[in-house]
Amino acid sequence: MSLMRIVLPVLSTSMLMAASGESIYQTKCASCHGKMAEKKALGHSNVIKGMPVDQFVKLTKAFATGEKKAIPIAKIVKKQFIDGYSDEEIRSVAEYVNKL
């Protein structure tokens, strides 16, 4: 019984994080990147479907900070994304996109 007390919360947290990444992606990213991350956002970005997690996180932060050049609207959107979500939430979106 005590094993269940340990395992159940860990599994529940993992499932919530996965749902969180999907939920954030579908509400905040899909309109530009496509429902399955299959589009070049605004015709300029890379397709992010299947992108490695660390690359997704690094590029998102680089666009938001201006380290990597982007069209102005992309920089604004990425900055709002970075400022509005925790590192864990951003990573959960990256993990979701990676599995598409």
The name of the CATH superfamily reads: Cytochrome c-like domain
CATH topology: Cytochrome Bc1 Complex, Chain D, domain 2
The coarse silhouette is globular
Q: What pattern of helices and strands is seen along the backbone?
A: HHHH
Task: Describe this protein's structure.
This protein is mainly α. The protein has one domain (2-98): Orthogonal Bundle (Cytochrome Bc1 Complex, Chain D, domain 2), CATH 1.10.760. The protein has helices at residues 2-33, 53-65, 72-84, 87-98. α2 (53-65) packs across α3. The termini are far apart.
Summarize the helices and strands and which ones pair or pack.
Layout: H1 2-33, H2 53-65, H3 72-84, H4 87-98
Helix pairs in contact: 1-4, 2-3, 2-4
Concise account of the structure shown:
The chain is mainly α and about 100 residues long. It has helices at about 1-35, 55-65, 70-85, 85-100. It has a single domain (about 1-100), classed as Cytochrome Bc1 Complex, Chain D, domain 2 (Orthogonal Bundle), CATH 1.10.760.10.
Features:
4 helices, 100 residues, mainly alpha, 70% helix, Cytochrome Bc1 Complex, Chain D, domain 2, single chain
